[in-house]
């Protein structure tokens, strides 16, 4: 059975993870029993007796008029055996559930289903796998606040203005505070500035922090995501669920807005994503080389108005860091 809205690949990946969790929990229980029964042989005899009472109870159900009396007696015997087992566990400093498999999800026993209905743990795992699948080409692990350097920003000011480094120090602190305090009610951000000024690095650092806090994050270049949406929309990817993931994730980061091929489809999709997430109050971070005027000209005045009215602007300044790094490596 395939979960509605997810591809077979994502579903099978979630199933494999659940199977590994289940096997790990059951192996742990088997190891605990082996050690515990070695120290307390009586416990092994009790487990064998409990198994026999369970079989006897099943047979008693079909035993006719005396079934009720037999079941009462077996229930009392079973309870007595369980009480003795708990006494042995307590004497060893263990809880009553020590010999049970320590499943990650107590509700479904890491099967993913309860009475044929999908468990909440399975739903969360499917969503997490979908986010991971969408983010798999993104170097999330390579960009953190710790690896961000202010050394490439000039420390000298011009025309009485603050130096690029001092302005970027403020940007750095603000982004770090945003990441630390990130919640579902956090504001949306638009990072603006020229090429190579650290917008992608900073947004990835925020993504990393949000992921570590347990939020579902989708990070994507606008160019790649529009291509993927086109394939799904026009039938080349019939199992796609990208549009829903973009709208539902806790934090969406759209990198390099304005670099995608401009078309009626791309403009409509971008507006729909931005507008829908604003309407549902889900935070989004956009990075772009375009000014507000250029956004208005490339997309629409309505789009630029939504950005100006509802996004917090984060302005990056300085000279192309990537170029400066290459020049330093040559010297």
TrEMBL record:
Domain (AAA+ ATPase) ranges: 185-313
Family annotation (Gene3D superfamilies): P-loop containing nucleotide triphosphate hydrolases (3.40.50.300)
Alphabetically ordered keywords of this record: ATP-binding, Coiled coil, Nucleotide-binding
Keyword Coiled coil in annotation: yes
Coiled coil: 64-91
Record field: transmembrane: none
One GO MF term: ATP binding
Record has Coiled coil as a keyword: yes
NCBIfam families: PRK06835.1
PANTHER family: ATP-BINDING PROTEIN RV3427C IN INSERTION SEQUENCE-RELATED, CHROMOSOMAL REPLICATION INITIATOR PROTEIN DNAA
Protein name as catalogued: ATP-binding protein
Lineage, highest ranks first: Bacteria, Bacillati, Bacillota, Clostridia, Eubacteriales
């Amino acid at each position: 059975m395939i979960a509605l809205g997810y591809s077979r690949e994502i579903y099978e990946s979630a199933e494999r993870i659940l199977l590994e969790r289940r096997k790990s929990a059951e192996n742990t229980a088997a190891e605990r029993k082996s050690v515990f029964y070695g120290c307390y042989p009586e416990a092994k005899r009790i487990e064998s007796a409990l198994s026999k009472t369970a079989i006897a109870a099943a047979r008693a159900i079909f035993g006719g008029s005396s079934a009720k009396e037999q079941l009462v007696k077996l229930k009392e015997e079973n309870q007595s055996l369980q009480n003795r087992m708990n006494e042995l566990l307590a004497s060893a400093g263990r809880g009553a559930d020590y010999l049970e498999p320590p499943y990650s999800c107590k509700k479904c026993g890491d099967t993913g289903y309860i009475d044929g209905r999908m468990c909440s743990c399975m739903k969360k795992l499917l969503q997490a796998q979908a986010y991971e699948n969408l983010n798999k080409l993104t170097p999330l692990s390579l960009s953190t606040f710790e690896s961000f350097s202010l050394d490439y920003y000039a420390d000298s000011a011009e025309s009485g203005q603050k130096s690029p480094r001092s302005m970027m120090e403020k940007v750095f602190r603000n982004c770090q505070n945003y990441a630390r305090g990130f919640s579902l009610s956090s504001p949306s951000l638009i990072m603006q500035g020229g090429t190579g000024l650290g917008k992608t690095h900073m947004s990835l650092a925020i993504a990393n922090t949000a992921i570590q806090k347990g939020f579902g994050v989708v990070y994507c270049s606008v160019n790649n995501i529009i291509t993927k949406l086109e394939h799904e929309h026009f039938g080349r990817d019939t199992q796609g669920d990208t549009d829903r993931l973009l709208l539902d994730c806790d934090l969406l980061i759209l990198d390099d807005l304005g670099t995608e091929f401009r078309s009626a489809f791309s403009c409509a999709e971008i507006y729909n994503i931005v507008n829908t997430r604003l309407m549902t109050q889900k935070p989004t971070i956009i990075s772009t080389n375009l000014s507000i005027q250029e956004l208005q000209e490339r997309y629409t005045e309505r789009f630029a108005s939504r950005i100006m009215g509802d996004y917090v602007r984060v302005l990056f300044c300085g000279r192309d860091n990537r170029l400066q790094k290459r020049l330093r490596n040559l010297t």
